[in-house]
Write a structure and sequence with these properties.
This protein is mainly alpha-helical. Helix 8 packs across helix 9. It has three domains: 102 residues, Fumarate Reductase Iron-sulfur Protein, Chain B, domain 2 (Orthogonal Bundle); 62 residues, no CATH class; 26 residues. Helices cover 57% and strands 0% of the residues.
Length: 209
């Protein structure tokens, strides 16, 4: 989608623009220093510092501009958050000390959770598999991650088969099915389920006002 093009119309089960803005800001405000997002002066230091801004459909500066305009859904439909390399240069250089990299992580989470992310996005698909693996085992299992990712991309799988086999033979990838789970996995799942329930209840309560 070219920069500036209207986003797709969200289906009924997605959040309205106001709800999306509220959920995003609630999560950002809950982060240490998250309230500083309100101090953005649109100077563009973040975009000028970002090594991948030229590949983004919306630059870091434009994310906050879209948020203020109630157009955050457009950003979630774009590739912007998936182009972030988490180098933290934007965060370090921001004169208002806004944690822009954390905003990118929140955009990824919202995009996947509420179905805004393009189903053909490679980065988003890998993130979904990673989340599923960590939910089941508490940690990533690289071999299973790549096997599941390439199942729907046979051409890419063939192109990378030799490299994957070499890594496997050199012990750089674990054998499929040999991944271990972490201690306290049940406790981790309870924490995640509790947080998801609290968020759902909060959204339902505020939506009924």
């Amino acid at each position: 989608m070219p920069r500036g093009e209207l986003a797709k119309t969200p289906p009924a089960d997605r959040l309205s623009p106001d709800e999306l803005k509220r959920v995003f800001l609630d999560d950002v405000y809950a982060l240490p220093g998250g309230e500083r997002i309100d101090l953005c002066i649109q100077c563009g230091t973040c975009s000028a510092s970002c090594p991948t801004a030229s590949y983004m459909e919306y630059s870091p500066r434009e994310i906050i501009a879209a948020l203020r305009a109630g157009l955050l859904g457009r950003v979630l439909h774009s590739n912007t958050q998936w182009m972030c390399t988490s180098c933290y240069t934007c965060t370090v250089r921001c004169p208002q000390e806004i944690k822009i990299t954390d905003l990118m992580y929140e955009l990824k989470r919202l995009g996947i959770k509420y179905g805004y992310t393009d189903k053909h996005s490679r980065a988003a698909e890998m993130a979904r598999i990673f989340v599923d693996l960590t939910n089941r085992r508490g940690r990533n299992q690289e071999t299973e991650l790549m096997m599941r990712y390439y199942m729907t991309r046979p051409a890419a799988a063939m192109a990378n088969a030799a490299r994957g086999l070499k890594m496997l033979l050199q012990g750089r990838l674990p054998l499929p099915g040999t991944g271990k789970t972490i201690k306290g996995l049940d406790e981790m799942r309870k924490i995640r389920e509790t947080l998801e329930r609290i968020e759902a209840e909060k959204l339902a309560k505020e939506g009924s006002k």
